[in-house]
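HUMAN: Can I see a protein plus its fold?

ASSISTANT:
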Amino acid sequence: MPIVVALDVMLARRKMKSKDLASIIGISEANLSLLKQGKVRGVRFATLEAICRALQCQPGDLLEYVVDDATPEVSHDARIGSSRDR
């Protein structure tokens, strides 16, 4: 998967347990675990905002795009904000 979630790294840097973060942001430990493992298909901006607030970090500290040869190229017309969508 081309998006890597580095939540576990940020938790370690902040010396915070997953259990504590889950409690602070108001989600279950199970859902936080799925997010840490990158096994979710999406994350709400409100959840991402709460995580960033609790860990005092930026979204880019938690999410990283990694080029994956198995991922098909996206055509220019399919990208967000193409002139066709306006």
